[in-house]
Amino acid sequence: MLISDMLSVNSRIVRSSRAVLHLNWLMTEPLPVYKTVTCLAHFPSKDIWHSNMTLRPRSKTRELICYSNNANVPRGYCTGQVKLNCWKCKQPIDKTPAFFCMSCKVVQPSEEGTSYFKIMDCDYTFTLDIQKLQKRYLQLQRSLHPDNFSQKSMKEQEYSESQSALVNKAYKTLLKPLSRGVYMLKLQGMHIEDGTESGTESEFLIKLMEINEALHEAQTPEEANQIGQDTKGKLTDLTEQIDTALRQGELHAAKALLVQMKYYANVEEKVKKKLSEFM
Q1: 157 in a structural domain
Q2: Fewest CB atoms less than 10 Å from the CB: which of 45, 64, 118, 245?
Q3: Is residue 218 in a domain?
Q4: Spatial CB neighbours of 45, under 8 Å, sequence gap ≥ 6
């Protein structure tokens, strides 16, 4: 049966005016290994459409398998394993993300779209293990740092730079609660834009103004430090509340709390600047 016939069969099975899934892949270059992915289509509503389809083209072409998966995975992201070959020795690479080939030990190209949690080998949770994150970061940078590849080929130098940059970005994003929470919302299709005052309660904004005024008028390090301690306590409370909201799937509540955390994090930075003025 031709691929077009098989797609036609699938299109008769899935009849929904709300769902359109565009699958684009190249079938012209032969690949000796299979590529397996999990696909989710993202719609404006809370519905999640699961693709359950197997396409087996003729020999010397790649095989695409779409299969159903848990509905709790982040929207719009591919979560299945992608099996590829090493660019140099052509041996299969079974582990993702793949930093090095297990056969020839050569650095591999970075994989776009890979979750930062997966790159840093961390559980998908807001209250992740920071010590584990830092240990993983140091381990990866020791092996991927571009200085280690100064005598290697241009391709290896390029791949090491891209891998190292990706690890840096993943580490910095997951290190701080604010950027970590914003990233987790992004994986779920929600964004926190700049200038979020319009969606923030006026009572909260007034309280924030009072804190900023008190910090501006602080005459001693002790006064500024007290504001800093109060702010730190508030950030701790917000971290617990955000964790609870994300665990319960209350994304809009988590977003509102993250907006508050953004403001308090800004106050915390101002406190540091104020304390430096007393030195």
Answers
A1: no
A2: 45
A3: yes
A4: 18
Q: Which helix (H) or strand (E) holds 49?
A: strand 48-50
Q: How is residue 189 annotated by DSSP?
A: T
Quick check: pTM over 0.85? no
Other CB atoms within 10 A of residue 198 CB: 6
Does residue 11 fall inside a structural domain?
Answer: no
| CATH number, domain with residue 254 | 1.20.1280.20
> 269 exposed, middle or buried (CB, 10 Å; 0-12, 13-18, 19+)?
exposed
User: Which of 6-10, 104-108, 160-164 comes out lowest in average pLDDT?
Assistant: 6-10
pLDDT band at 61 (very low <50, low <70, confident <90, very high): very low
Number of domains in the chain: 1
**Which residue stretches of 49-153 are H helix?**
116-119, 130-144
39 within some domain: no
Strand locations in the chain, DSSP E? Answer: 35-37, 40-42, 48-50, 53-55, 64-66, 84-85, 92-93
Give the residue carrying structure tokens 């052509």.
90
Contacts with 160 (C-beta within 8 Å, 6 or more apart), sequence order: 107, 144, 145, 146, 148, 149, 152
**Residue 238's domain spans which residues?**
197-277
